[in-house]
Protein backbone atom coordinates (compact mmCIF):
# COMPACT_ATOMS: atom_id res chain seq x y z
CA UNK A 1 0.00 0.00 0.00
CA UNK A 2 2.74 2.47 0.95
CA UNK A 3 4.97 2.01 -2.08
CA UNK A 4 2.96 4.26 -4.37
CA UNK A 5 2.23 6.93 -1.76
CA UNK A 6 4.26 9.92 -0.70
CA UNK A 7 4.94 10.76 2.96
CA UNK A 8 2.09 13.27 3.16
CA UNK A 9 -0.33 10.62 1.93
CA UNK A 10 0.97 8.05 4.38
CA UNK A 11 0.56 10.51 7.23
CA UNK A 12 -2.95 11.29 6.02
CA UNK A 13 -3.74 7.56 6.22
CA UNK A 14 -2.25 7.46 9.72
CA UNK A 15 -4.46 10.38 10.75
CA UNK A 16 -7.57 8.59 9.48
CA UNK A 17 -6.48 5.39 11.22
CA UNK A 18 -5.86 7.19 14.51
CA UNK A 19 -9.25 8.89 14.30
CA UNK A 20 -10.88 5.49 13.79
CA UNK A 21 -10.04 4.92 17.51
CA UNK A 22 -8.41 1.56 16.79
CA UNK A 23 -5.05 2.41 18.34
CA UNK A 24 -6.80 3.41 21.57
CA UNK A 25 -8.02 -0.09 22.16
CA UNK A 26 -5.78 -1.70 24.80
CA UNK A 27 -6.05 -5.15 23.27
CA UNK A 28 -4.96 -3.74 19.90
CA UNK A 29 -1.92 -2.10 21.54
CA UNK A 30 -0.89 -5.28 23.32
CA UNK A 31 -1.37 -7.40 20.22
CA UNK A 32 0.81 -5.07 18.13
CA UNK A 33 3.53 -5.04 20.78
CA UNK A 34 3.57 -8.82 21.01
CA UNK A 35 3.63 -9.05 17.22
CA UNK A 36 6.65 -6.75 17.09
CA UNK A 37 8.42 -8.83 19.70
CA UNK A 38 7.76 -12.01 17.77
CA UNK A 39 9.01 -10.42 14.54
CA UNK A 40 12.24 -9.31 16.20
CA UNK A 41 12.63 -12.79 17.70
CA UNK A 42 12.05 -14.49 14.35
CA UNK A 43 14.54 -12.17 12.66
CA UNK A 44 17.16 -11.84 15.39
CA UNK A 45 19.83 -13.47 13.27
CA UNK A 46 19.23 -11.09 10.37
CA UNK A 47 19.41 -8.14 12.72
CA UNK A 48 22.77 -9.34 14.08
CA UNK A 49 24.11 -9.81 10.57
CA UNK A 50 22.99 -6.34 9.46
CA UNK A 51 24.59 -4.52 12.38
CA UNK A 52 27.79 -6.54 12.05
CA UNK A 53 28.02 -5.44 8.41
CA UNK A 54 27.46 -1.83 9.38
CA UNK A 55 30.04 -1.41 12.14
CA UNK A 56 31.14 -4.84 13.26
CA UNK A 57 28.99 -4.87 16.35
CA UNK A 58 29.02 -8.29 18.01
CA UNK A 59 25.97 -10.40 18.78
CA UNK A 60 26.78 -10.16 22.49
CA UNK A 61 26.77 -6.36 22.54
CA UNK A 62 23.82 -6.14 20.14
CA UNK A 63 21.76 -8.40 22.35
CA UNK A 64 22.89 -6.75 25.60
CA UNK A 65 22.52 -3.13 24.51
CA UNK A 66 19.79 -3.27 21.86
CA UNK A 67 17.65 -6.37 21.36
CA UNK A 68 17.21 -7.08 25.07
CA UNK A 69 15.95 -3.49 25.53
CA UNK A 70 13.28 -4.15 22.91
CA UNK A 71 12.10 -7.37 24.62
CA UNK A 72 12.24 -5.82 28.07
CA UNK A 73 10.25 -2.75 27.03
CA UNK A 74 7.58 -4.77 25.22
CA UNK A 75 7.14 -7.10 28.20
CA UNK A 76 7.02 -4.12 30.53
CA UNK A 77 4.32 -2.27 28.58
CA UNK A 78 2.24 -5.37 27.88
CA UNK A 79 2.23 -5.99 31.62
CA UNK A 80 1.63 -2.42 32.77
CA UNK A 81 -0.25 -0.57 30.08
CA UNK A 82 -3.74 -1.33 31.40
CA UNK A 83 -2.79 0.29 34.67
CA UNK A 84 -0.89 3.17 32.98
CA UNK A 85 -3.82 3.91 30.67
CA UNK A 86 -6.39 3.94 33.46
CA UNK A 87 -7.65 7.41 34.39
CA UNK A 88 -6.05 8.48 37.68
CA UNK A 89 -8.36 9.93 40.28
CA UNK A 90 -6.95 12.95 42.12
CA UNK A 91 -8.26 15.01 45.03
CA UNK A 92 -10.86 17.64 44.21
CA UNK A 93 -10.42 21.00 45.93
CA UNK A 94 -13.11 22.55 48.10
CA UNK A 95 -14.44 25.07 45.56
CA UNK A 96 -15.20 22.24 43.15
CA UNK A 97 -17.33 20.19 45.51
CA UNK A 98 -19.36 18.20 44.75
CA UNK A 99 -17.16 16.91 42.02
CA UNK A 100 -14.46 14.45 41.12
CA UNK A 101 -11.19 14.98 39.20
CA UNK A 102 -9.36 12.61 36.91
CA UNK A 103 -6.28 12.61 34.70
CA UNK A 104 -6.76 10.73 31.43
CA UNK A 105 -3.72 9.45 29.49
CA UNK A 106 -4.74 10.52 26.02
CA UNK A 107 -2.68 9.26 23.07
CA UNK A 108 -1.09 12.22 21.28
CA UNK A 109 -1.89 10.86 17.81
CA UNK A 110 0.52 10.64 14.89
CA UNK A 111 4.14 10.48 16.00
CA UNK A 112 7.39 10.93 14.12
CA UNK A 113 10.37 9.08 15.54
CA UNK A 114 13.83 9.92 14.25
CA UNK A 115 16.64 7.64 15.41
CA UNK A 116 20.40 7.99 15.79
CA UNK A 117 22.85 5.51 14.30
CA UNK A 118 24.94 4.42 17.26
CA UNK A 119 22.46 1.98 18.87
CA UNK A 120 20.19 1.80 15.83
CA UNK A 121 17.74 -0.86 17.02
CA UNK A 122 17.39 0.34 20.57
CA UNK A 123 17.21 4.07 19.82
CA UNK A 124 14.75 3.68 16.95
CA UNK A 125 12.48 0.97 18.26
CA UNK A 126 12.17 1.60 22.00
CA UNK A 127 10.49 4.99 21.45
CA UNK A 128 8.21 3.27 18.91
CA UNK A 129 7.30 0.69 21.56
CA UNK A 130 6.43 3.42 24.07
CA UNK A 131 4.40 5.24 21.40
CA UNK A 132 2.42 2.07 20.53
CA UNK A 133 1.81 1.36 24.21
CA UNK A 134 0.41 4.87 24.60
CA UNK A 135 -1.95 4.34 21.65
CA UNK A 136 -0.32 6.26 18.80
CA UNK A 137 0.67 5.70 15.16
CA UNK A 138 4.30 6.18 14.08
CA UNK A 139 6.28 7.28 11.10
CA UNK A 140 9.80 6.05 11.80
CA UNK A 141 13.04 7.45 10.36
CA UNK A 142 16.07 5.37 11.40
CA UNK A 143 19.50 6.83 10.79
CA UNK A 144 20.75 6.16 7.27
CA UNK A 145 24.39 5.76 8.33
CA UNK A 146 24.09 2.11 9.33
CA UNK A 147 22.54 1.25 6.00
CA UNK A 148 21.93 -2.43 6.66
CA UNK A 149 20.19 -1.95 9.99
CA UNK A 150 18.03 0.78 8.45
CA UNK A 151 16.98 -1.59 5.69
CA UNK A 152 16.43 -4.46 8.13
CA UNK A 153 14.08 -2.34 10.26
CA UNK A 154 12.23 -1.06 7.18
CA UNK A 155 11.74 -4.60 5.90
CA UNK A 156 10.64 -5.91 9.27
CA UNK A 157 8.06 -3.20 9.86
CA UNK A 158 6.88 -2.24 6.38
CA UNK A 159 6.29 -5.83 5.34
CA UNK A 160 4.45 -6.77 8.51
CA UNK A 161 2.52 -3.72 9.65
CA UNK A 162 0.06 -1.60 7.77
CA UNK A 163 1.52 1.82 6.82
CA UNK A 164 -1.53 3.50 8.31
CA UNK A 165 -0.22 2.34 11.72
CA UNK A 166 3.59 2.06 11.43
CA UNK A 167 5.78 3.07 8.55
CA UNK A 168 9.57 3.19 8.23
CA UNK A 169 11.05 5.84 5.96
CA UNK A 170 14.38 4.90 4.41
CA UNK A 171 16.53 7.90 3.66
CA UNK A 172 18.79 10.68 4.85
CA UNK A 173 18.68 14.44 5.20
CA UNK A 174 16.54 15.03 2.11
CA UNK A 175 13.80 12.63 3.24
CA UNK A 176 13.94 13.83 6.85
CA UNK A 177 13.62 17.44 5.71
CA UNK A 178 10.57 16.52 3.68
CA UNK A 179 8.89 14.66 6.55
CA UNK A 180 9.67 17.46 8.99
CA UNK A 181 7.45 19.80 6.96
CA UNK A 182 4.42 17.65 7.82
CA UNK A 183 2.19 18.18 10.82
CA UNK A 184 2.71 15.49 13.44
CA UNK A 185 1.29 15.42 16.96
CA UNK A 186 4.65 14.50 18.46
CA UNK A 187 8.26 14.37 17.30
CA UNK A 188 10.73 12.20 19.18
CA UNK A 189 14.29 12.81 18.00
CA UNK A 190 17.56 11.18 19.03
CA UNK A 191 20.75 12.69 17.67
CA UNK A 192 23.12 15.62 17.86
CA UNK A 193 22.27 19.02 19.37
CA UNK A 194 22.98 20.53 15.92
CA UNK A 195 20.27 18.52 14.17
CA UNK A 196 18.10 18.75 17.30
CA UNK A 197 17.83 22.50 16.64
CA UNK A 198 16.68 21.85 13.04
CA UNK A 199 14.02 19.45 14.32
CA UNK A 200 12.91 21.86 17.04
CA UNK A 201 12.52 24.69 14.52
CA UNK A 202 10.49 22.50 12.16
CA UNK A 203 8.29 21.37 15.06
CA UNK A 204 7.72 24.98 16.15
CA UNK A 205 6.08 25.69 12.79
CA UNK A 206 3.15 23.45 13.83
CA UNK A 207 3.58 23.81 17.62
CA UNK A 208 4.31 20.10 17.70
CA UNK A 209 5.61 18.87 21.07
CA UNK A 210 9.08 17.37 20.95
CA UNK A 211 11.32 15.10 22.92
CA UNK A 212 14.95 15.72 22.00
CA UNK A 213 17.44 13.10 23.14
CA UNK A 214 20.77 14.79 22.41
CA UNK A 215 24.41 14.49 23.45
CA UNK A 216 27.33 16.41 24.90
CA UNK A 217 30.57 16.00 26.80
CA UNK A 218 29.86 13.81 29.82
CA UNK A 219 32.51 14.00 32.54
CA UNK A 220 33.76 11.29 34.89
CA UNK A 221 35.39 12.38 38.15
CA UNK A 222 37.73 10.17 40.13
CA UNK A 223 38.48 11.51 43.54
CA UNK A 224 41.02 10.55 46.21
CA UNK A 225 38.17 8.68 47.89
CA UNK A 226 37.47 6.40 44.95
CA UNK A 227 38.10 2.70 44.66
CA UNK A 228 40.56 3.05 41.77
CA UNK A 229 40.29 -0.57 40.58
CA UNK A 230 36.52 -0.27 40.29
CA UNK A 231 36.80 3.14 38.60
CA UNK A 232 39.31 1.91 36.01
CA UNK A 233 37.29 -1.22 35.20
CA UNK A 234 33.95 0.56 34.87
CA UNK A 235 35.31 3.54 32.95
CA UNK A 236 37.07 1.29 30.44
CA UNK A 237 33.88 -0.71 29.91
CA UNK A 238 31.66 2.38 29.59
CA UNK A 239 34.08 4.18 27.30
CA UNK A 240 35.05 1.44 24.88
CA UNK A 241 31.79 -0.45 24.49
CA UNK A 242 30.50 0.34 20.95
CA UNK A 243 34.03 1.76 20.38
CA UNK A 244 33.14 4.85 22.39
CA UNK A 245 30.20 5.67 20.11
CA UNK A 246 27.77 5.98 23.01
CA UNK A 247 25.86 9.15 23.86
CA UNK A 248 26.33 8.59 27.60
CA UNK A 249 29.94 7.36 27.43
CA UNK A 250 32.30 9.13 29.81
CA UNK A 251 33.70 11.69 27.37
CA UNK A 252 36.69 12.68 29.52
CA UNK A 253 38.10 11.91 32.95
CA UNK A 254 38.96 14.40 35.68
CA UNK A 255 41.19 12.65 38.20
CA UNK A 256 42.66 14.00 41.44
CA UNK A 257 46.32 14.82 40.83
CA UNK A 258 47.50 12.73 43.79
CA UNK A 259 46.08 9.51 42.37
CA UNK A 260 46.47 10.26 38.67
CA UNK A 261 49.54 8.07 38.03
CA UNK A 262 48.08 5.14 39.89
CA UNK A 263 44.76 5.51 38.07
CA UNK A 264 46.41 5.68 34.63
CA UNK A 265 48.41 2.54 35.42
CA UNK A 266 45.21 0.67 36.36
CA UNK A 267 43.35 2.09 33.38
CA UNK A 268 45.95 0.87 30.91
CA UNK A 269 46.19 -2.56 32.47
CA UNK A 270 42.38 -2.83 32.33
CA UNK A 271 42.32 -1.86 28.62
CA UNK A 272 45.00 -4.48 27.89
CA UNK A 273 43.03 -7.11 29.77
CA UNK A 274 39.93 -6.50 27.61
CA UNK A 275 41.86 -7.21 24.42
CA UNK A 276 40.34 -4.65 22.07
CA UNK A 277 42.62 -5.53 19.17
CA UNK A 278 41.81 -4.89 15.53
CA UNK A 279 40.35 -8.29 14.83
CA UNK A 280 38.58 -8.70 18.17
CA UNK A 281 35.02 -9.85 17.56
CA UNK A 282 33.87 -7.77 20.52
CA UNK A 283 35.27 -4.43 19.37
CA UNK A 284 33.26 -2.24 16.96
CA UNK A 285 34.43 -0.27 13.96
CA UNK A 286 34.03 3.47 13.62
CA UNK A 287 30.76 4.01 11.77
CA UNK A 288 32.13 5.75 8.66
CA UNK A 289 35.13 7.48 7.13
CA UNK A 290 33.96 10.96 8.08
CA UNK A 291 33.86 10.05 11.75
CA UNK A 292 37.13 8.14 11.45
CA UNK A 293 38.87 11.26 10.06
CA UNK A 294 37.25 13.47 12.72
CA UNK A 295 38.53 11.18 15.48
CA UNK A 296 41.98 10.84 13.95
CA UNK A 297 42.35 14.60 14.09
CA UNK A 298 41.65 14.53 17.83
CA UNK A 299 44.58 12.25 18.62
CA UNK A 300 47.37 14.57 19.67
CA UNK A 301 50.44 12.32 19.37
CA UNK A 302 52.36 14.47 21.87
CA UNK A 303 49.79 13.72 24.55
CA UNK A 304 49.29 10.09 23.61
CA UNK A 305 50.17 7.70 26.43
CA UNK A 306 48.38 4.58 25.23
CA UNK A 307 46.82 3.24 22.02
CA UNK A 308 46.58 5.47 19.00
CA UNK A 309 46.71 2.55 16.55
CA UNK A 310 44.53 3.23 13.56
CA UNK A 311 43.60 1.56 10.27
CA UNK A 312 41.49 3.57 7.89
CA UNK A 313 40.63 0.57 5.75
CA UNK A 314 39.02 -1.32 8.63
CA UNK A 315 37.95 1.91 10.38
CA UNK A 316 39.77 0.69 13.48
CA UNK A 317 40.87 3.03 16.24
CA UNK A 318 42.31 1.28 19.27
CA UNK A 319 41.35 2.45 22.77
CA UNK A 320 43.42 5.61 23.06
CA UNK A 321 44.40 7.54 26.17
CA UNK A 322 45.65 11.12 26.11
CA UNK A 323 47.24 12.66 29.20
CA UNK A 324 47.78 16.24 30.43
CA UNK A 325 44.85 17.35 28.32
CA UNK A 326 43.59 20.92 28.63
CA UNK A 327 40.38 22.62 27.53
CA UNK A 328 42.30 24.18 24.63
CA UNK A 329 43.00 20.78 23.02
CA UNK A 330 41.08 19.65 19.93
CA UNK A 331 39.67 16.66 21.81
CA UNK A 332 37.91 18.99 24.26
CA UNK A 333 36.20 21.16 21.64
CA UNK A 334 33.32 18.78 20.86
CA UNK A 335 31.70 15.53 21.96
CA UNK A 336 34.28 12.83 21.14
CA UNK A 337 31.93 9.95 20.28
CA UNK A 338 34.79 7.52 19.76
CA UNK A 339 37.41 5.48 21.65
CA UNK A 340 39.61 8.36 22.79
CA UNK A 341 39.84 9.08 26.50
CA UNK A 342 41.37 12.40 27.57
CA UNK A 343 42.71 12.65 31.11
CA UNK A 344 42.65 15.95 32.97
CA UNK A 345 43.75 16.37 36.55
CA UNK A 346 42.47 18.59 39.34
CA UNK A 347 43.32 19.42 42.93
CA UNK A 348 40.06 20.94 44.10
CA UNK A 349 36.84 19.13 43.21
CA UNK A 350 34.58 22.03 44.07
CA UNK A 351 36.43 24.48 41.83
CA UNK A 352 36.57 21.94 39.03
CA UNK A 353 32.83 21.34 39.16
CA UNK A 354 32.22 25.10 39.14
CA UNK A 355 34.33 25.37 36.00
CA UNK A 356 32.25 22.74 34.22
CA UNK A 357 29.00 24.35 35.32
CA UNK A 358 29.70 27.08 32.74
CA UNK A 359 29.86 24.54 29.90
CA UNK A 360 26.82 23.08 28.16
CA UNK A 361 24.86 20.79 30.48
CA UNK A 362 26.01 17.22 29.81
CA UNK A 363 23.78 14.24 29.11
CA UNK A 364 25.54 12.29 31.87
CA UNK A 365 28.03 12.64 34.68
CA UNK A 366 29.88 10.01 36.67
CA UNK A 367 31.53 10.30 40.05
CA UNK A 368 33.83 7.68 41.51
CA UNK A 369 34.02 8.46 45.21
CA UNK A 370 32.99 6.83 48.45
CA UNK A 371 32.75 10.16 50.21
CA UNK A 372 29.17 11.33 50.72
CA UNK A 373 30.15 15.01 50.83
CA UNK A 374 31.77 14.72 47.42
CA UNK A 375 28.73 12.92 46.08
CA UNK A 376 26.48 15.63 47.45
CA UNK A 377 28.71 18.34 46.01
CA UNK A 378 28.41 16.98 42.48
CA UNK A 379 24.68 16.37 42.68
CA UNK A 380 23.99 19.82 44.12
CA UNK A 381 26.17 21.84 41.76
CA UNK A 382 26.18 20.17 38.37
CA UNK A 383 23.09 19.99 36.18
CA UNK A 384 23.16 16.90 33.93
CA UNK A 385 20.64 14.51 32.35
CA UNK A 386 21.38 11.45 34.50
CA UNK A 387 24.34 9.45 35.66
CA UNK A 388 25.92 7.17 38.24
CA UNK A 389 27.93 7.22 41.38
CA UNK A 390 30.68 4.59 41.15
CA UNK A 391 29.59 3.30 37.75
CA UNK A 392 29.14 4.33 34.14
CA UNK A 393 26.18 3.92 31.72
CA UNK A 394 24.16 1.58 33.92
CA UNK A 395 21.53 4.17 34.91
CA UNK A 396 20.12 3.69 31.41
CA UNK A 397 19.19 0.11 32.28
CA UNK A 398 16.91 1.02 35.20
CA UNK A 399 13.46 1.73 33.80
CA UNK A 400 12.36 3.28 37.06
CA UNK A 401 14.65 6.18 36.19
CA UNK A 402 13.65 8.67 33.48
CA UNK A 403 16.22 8.85 30.69
CA UNK A 404 16.93 12.17 28.99
CA UNK A 405 19.08 15.26 28.87
CA UNK A 406 18.81 18.82 30.10
CA UNK A 407 19.63 22.09 28.34
CA UNK A 408 21.87 21.40 25.35
CA UNK A 409 21.73 17.63 25.97
CA UNK A 410 17.99 17.37 25.50
CA UNK A 411 14.37 18.11 26.26
CA UNK A 412 12.09 15.54 27.87
CA UNK A 413 12.70 11.93 28.78
CA UNK A 414 11.47 8.36 28.31
CA UNK A 415 11.85 4.73 29.54
CA UNK A 416 9.35 2.83 31.66
CA UNK A 417 6.30 4.81 32.72
CA UNK A 418 8.05 8.01 31.60
CA UNK A 419 8.00 6.73 28.01
CA UNK A 420 4.28 6.10 28.24
CA UNK A 421 3.69 9.61 29.58
CA UNK A 422 5.93 11.15 26.92
CA UNK A 423 3.64 9.83 24.20
CA UNK A 424 0.44 10.73 26.05
CA UNK A 425 -1.33 13.94 26.83
CA UNK A 426 -2.35 14.22 30.46
CA UNK A 427 -5.94 15.30 29.90
CA UNK A 428 -7.34 16.87 33.07
CA UNK A 429 -11.08 16.57 33.65
CA UNK A 430 -13.30 17.83 36.43
CA UNK A 431 -16.64 16.06 36.67
CA UNK A 432 -19.06 18.30 38.52
CA UNK A 433 -22.28 17.34 40.26
CA UNK A 434 -25.33 19.23 39.02
CA UNK A 435 -26.93 19.36 42.46
CA UNK A 436 -24.84 21.62 44.67
CA UNK A 437 -24.74 25.20 43.35
CA UNK A 438 -23.42 27.88 45.77
CA UNK A 439 -24.21 31.42 44.60
CA UNK A 440 -20.75 32.64 45.55
CA UNK A 441 -19.06 32.82 42.10
CA UNK A 442 -21.97 34.41 40.29
CA UNK A 443 -22.57 38.15 39.95
CA UNK A 444 -23.65 40.46 41.36
CA UNK A 445 -20.59 40.41 43.64
CA UNK A 446 -21.12 41.66 47.17
CA UNK A 447 -18.79 42.51 50.07
CA UNK A 448 -20.10 39.48 51.88
CA UNK A 449 -19.26 37.20 48.96
CA UNK A 450 -15.76 38.74 48.67
CA UNK A 451 -15.12 38.05 52.37
CA UNK A 452 -16.02 34.39 51.93
CA UNK A 453 -14.00 34.17 48.71
CA UNK A 454 -10.90 35.52 50.47
CA UNK A 455 -11.33 32.96 53.24
CA UNK A 456 -11.83 30.11 50.81
CA UNK A 457 -8.97 30.86 48.39
P1 LIG B 1 22.64 13.21 13.87
O1 LIG B 1 22.04 14.38 14.58
O2 LIG B 1 23.66 13.49 12.83
O3 LIG B 1 21.50 12.33 13.16
C1 LIG B 1 20.33 11.92 13.82
C2 LIG B 1 19.20 11.80 12.83
O4 LIG B 1 18.96 13.05 12.21
C3 LIG B 1 19.45 10.80 11.69
O5 LIG B 1 18.29 10.02 11.52
C4 LIG B 1 19.72 11.68 10.50
O6 LIG B 1 19.27 11.11 9.29
C5 LIG B 1 18.94 12.93 10.79
N1 LIG B 1 19.55 14.13 10.23
C6 LIG B 1 20.89 14.38 10.09
N2 LIG B 1 21.08 15.60 9.57
C7 LIG B 1 19.86 16.14 9.36
C8 LIG B 1 19.38 17.38 8.84
N3 LIG B 1 20.23 18.33 8.41
N4 LIG B 1 18.05 17.59 8.78
C9 LIG B 1 17.19 16.65 9.21
N5 LIG B 1 17.58 15.45 9.70
C10 LIG B 1 18.89 15.19 9.78
O7 LIG B 1 23.21 12.27 15.04
P2 LIG B 1 23.96 10.89 14.93
O8 LIG B 1 25.29 11.09 14.28
O9 LIG B 1 23.07 9.85 14.39
O10 LIG B 1 24.19 10.55 16.48
C11 LIG B 1 25.20 11.16 17.23
C12 LIG B 1 24.68 12.18 18.19
O11 LIG B 1 23.49 11.74 18.80
C13 LIG B 1 25.63 12.45 19.34
O12 LIG B 1 25.60 13.81 19.67
C14 LIG B 1 25.07 11.63 20.48
O13 LIG B 1 25.42 12.06 21.75
C15 LIG B 1 23.61 11.78 20.21
N6 LIG B 1 22.86 10.67 20.79
C16 LIG B 1 22.03 10.91 21.83
C17 LIG B 1 21.35 9.87 22.43
C18 LIG B 1 20.42 10.07 23.58
O14 LIG B 1 19.71 9.13 23.92
N7 LIG B 1 20.37 11.23 24.20
C19 LIG B 1 21.54 8.57 21.94
C20 LIG B 1 22.39 8.38 20.87
C21 LIG B 1 23.05 9.44 20.29
TrEMBL record:
Keyword Oxidoreductase applies: yes
Domain Aldehyde dehydrogenase: 18-429
Domain of life, source organism: Bacteria
Record InterPro entries: Ald_DH/histidinol_DH, Ald_DH_C, Ald_DH_CS_CYS, Ald_DH_CS_GLU, Ald_DH_N, Aldehyde_DH_dom, Aldehyde_DH_NAD(P)
Positions of the catalytic residues: 213
Keywords noted in UniProt: Oxidoreductase
Pfam families cross-referenced by the UniProt entry: Aldedh
Gene3D superfamilies hit by this protein: Aldehyde Dehydrogenase, Chain A, domain 1, Aldehyde Dehydrogenase, Chain A, domain 2
Family that this chain belongs to: Belongs to the aldehyde dehydrogenase family.
Protein name as it appears in the record: Aldehyde dehydrogenase
GN (gene name): aldH
Amino acid sequence: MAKDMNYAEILQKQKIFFNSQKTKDLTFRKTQLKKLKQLVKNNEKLLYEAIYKDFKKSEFETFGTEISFIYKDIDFYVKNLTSFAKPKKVTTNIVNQLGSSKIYQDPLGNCLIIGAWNYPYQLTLTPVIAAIAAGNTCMIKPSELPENTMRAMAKLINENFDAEFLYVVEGGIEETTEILRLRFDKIFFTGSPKVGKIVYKAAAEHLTPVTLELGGKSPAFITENADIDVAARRIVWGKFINAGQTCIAPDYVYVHEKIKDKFIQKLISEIKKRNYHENAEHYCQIINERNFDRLERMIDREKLIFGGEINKETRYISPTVLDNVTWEDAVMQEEIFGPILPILSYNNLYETILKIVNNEKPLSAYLFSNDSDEQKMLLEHLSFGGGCINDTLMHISNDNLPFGGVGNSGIGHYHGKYGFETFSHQKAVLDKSIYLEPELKYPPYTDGKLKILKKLL
